[in-house]
C-alpha cells in the first residue's frame, strides 16, 4: 500500500503527494477515517473551494459530504515502469521483447526466474 510508496528506496521518489477531495455518502460509520488512512472532513463549502477553487461537484442534496484525503497522490505510469525496470535490471533481471512467459521458477515462495 501507501507505506511502500513512502518507504521503498526505489519507489519513494515517484509519487506526487497532493491530496484528494472525495465525495461520499453522509454519515459513514468511519468518522475521520477513509479506510486505510485518515481523512479530514466533512468539509464546508468554503474549505473545499480553498483546496480546489474550481470544485464543481458540491451538491445540495444533503446526502453527500466532501472529505480531504491528505495522503493521496499519483505517479506517472511511464516513469514508474522505467524506474522499476532499471532497478530490476540492476538486480540481474533480463527483459526480452516479443516473448511469452511459459513458466516461472520459485524458491521459498519468491519468483526468481
Molecular structure report:
The chain has 113 residues and is an alpha+beta fold. It has 3 helices and 6 strands. It has a two-stranded antiparallel ribbon with strand order 1-4. A two-stranded antiparallel sheet has the order 2-3. A two-stranded antiparallel ribbon has the order 5-6. The protein is elongated and about 55 Å long. The two termini are 25 Å apart. The mean pLDDT is 84.
Give the topology:
Elements: H1 2-7, E1 16-17, E2 20-25, H2 45-51, E3 64-69, E4 73-74, H3 77-90, E5 106-107, E6 110-111
Antiparallel strand pairs: 1-4, 2-3, 5-6
User: What is the overall number of helices?
Assistant: 3
Q: Write the element-wise H/E pattern from the N-terminal end onward.
A: HEEHEEHEE
Mean pLDDT: 84
Q: For the CA atoms, what is the radius of gyration?
A: 21 Å
> Could you describe the largest sheet, including whether it forms a barrel?
2 strands, antiparallel
Q: In percent, how helical is the residue content?
A: 10-25%
Structural class, please?
Answer: alpha+beta
Portion of residues in beta strands equals 15-25%
Distance between the termini: 25 Å
Lateral arrangement of strands in the main beta sheet? 1-4
